[in-house]
């Protein structure tokens, strides 16, 4: 029987084998492409290995942003010669033994690819001495090939020196950035790892200049002071929350202290730094209606998740994680931020003292040095957290609610704009306009949930002349305006008839409020850009335009009503513009000013 090939006039050809197992040198370079993108990748991997080795001191030294030289030295457990040699094999690791271990990884560098991947694209020297060894080991590698193994007189610990990164991959070296940019990237990653491991000392040098010199710190607050100073640390408040087995601890910035420009959001899960836009957005939502859309509050958020609820093995550089229920974590973060901003600690203050320290507990080191040690965590049980609050002493006022001197609060109006009240810890100063904004906003938002608030019918309706755009906006928003209390009807010729109006206070000017709202709806407003929907946007505008104004005299009963209603709101310390409603002046600050 003739084959198809014969009928077609050709003979069957045997195809050559095209699938080959790559040699280790090539496989390592491919792995390096995923792990080692630039000098900062090398630094991150080496510092994480040092942390897993139980180091309490880590020194990083760069030349030309790490392109010429990177040296990371630690005082961890080190490696014996056999382990040092095995560490250069792909997938060699002391961190995991079975696939089950991947579900509960407590270490940072667990894949066993970093050292061989880095060595494949650089000239590397590993100088290490393990616990109990009389002498250390020095291994020299050139482009993935071991070129020398010698004895080394050194203390316990490890030094990894990487020279001429990508010397054998010139196409990749062309994509490296200028020295300053590479140095900034390394500084950022070392800073992040230092925030995750406050009990570890770090130094970072670049071309013989000291960029970071951080001594081991007793808590996160002390570490932040060492990096950014006391003034910045003084703008932070403590974040503590638990729900469904999840814990969050950290420090977030007071809304009044948030500024335009660079925003630092540091996220950690089970002690591991990671990136997640969804959780960063959840933090922003937690701040909604307490800051303007232009400012960027800082946040240091440490999550502790139950085993199996987060997968950290999803990104080549371990920069991202996957949560079993991301929505659940997002909601938890948003709610935790919101609750934190409802406390007195989040209000503006004249005090110069910093937030109470955020204590930390350290996960114990394994008895077997080969297992390494877990990184420092910042998580406490509810009881420990409560005790740490009580231990804060004179700074209790930052975490307790306002406590007043007596049941009948004495209130004073100053400059027809501010209301003063005495507390057990000092004085609070309330901005009457900002406070009333918060009251009106939350009152209207609650009313929207129940169908809106009823306006007061006018005996003589208002006739309001608008621009064409404003008239159209009023026509489009009839329903929602009615829920605010404005009953409107088109009269033609860009004229609106207003039959009913809200009645938020005795000094309310309904026509001015309505016109200002229409103008702002057409022209746009910074305060409403953060609104999650049209109802919230309208509520913000009404609160702003309808609140009692600065300069308005108030009698004692009106001040008392303002005071009582403010502290009944969800977020009494912040108005909808991102300005404070309350500024605290504590007893300690008064005593310092008077040198008592």
Which features characterize this protein?
596 residues, alpha+beta, Ribosomal Protein S5, domain 2, Ribosomal Protein S8, Chain: A, domain 1, five-stranded mixed sheet, 22% strand
User: What would the CATH topology of the largest domain be?
Assistant: Heat Shock Protein 90
- Which CATH architecture of the largest domain? 2-Layer Sandwich
Helix content: 25-40%
Terminal Cα span: 113 Å
CATH class of the largest domain: Alpha Beta
Roughly what fraction of the amino acids lie in strands? 15-25%
Structural class: alpha+beta
Tally of separate helices: 19
Q: Profile the largest sheet.
A: 8 strands, mixed
Mean pLDDT: 84
What's a concise summary of this model?
The chain is 32% helix and 22% strand.
Any overview of this molecule?
The protein has 3 domains: 24-207, Heat Shock Protein 90 (2-Layer Sandwich), CATH 3.30.565.10; 220-398, Ribosomal Protein S5, domain 2; 430-566, MutL, C-terminal domain, regulatory subdomain (Ribosomal Protein S8, Chain: A, domain 1, 2-Layer Sandwich), CATH 3.30.1370. Helix content is 32%, strand content 22%. The chain contains 19 helices and 23 strands. The strands form 5 sheets. An 8-stranded mixed β-sheet has the order 5-4-3-6-2-1-7-8. α3 runs parallel beside α7 (179-196), α7 (179-196) packs antiparallel against α8 (220-228) and α13 (432-449) crosses α18.
